Fold this protein.
Amino acid sequence: MLMITCPCCGKRPEIEFRYGGQAHVARPADPATLDDAQWAAFLFHRDNPKGAYAERWLHAHGCGRWFNAIRDTHSDRILATYPAGAPMPDLATLQGEGTR
């Protein structure tokens, strides 16, 4: 079972959490000005890397707060978690610490 560290509650099993998609996706400043192709790109196009990936998670059966996590999509290991709104940690530093 995947263990995820909530920034507020600590390490908990994955069944307490809900996945929320890619983190750090910039919302359109004026959605009314987007054409259909731009709107579709915003809604549906996401990165799909093999390796470190920033994701949003909700601690649904805990504190109820959203936070971000860096997960290695190849090994399914969580490299770091941090509060929503905080800047993303440096990936080179995370991978250089032997967490990969």
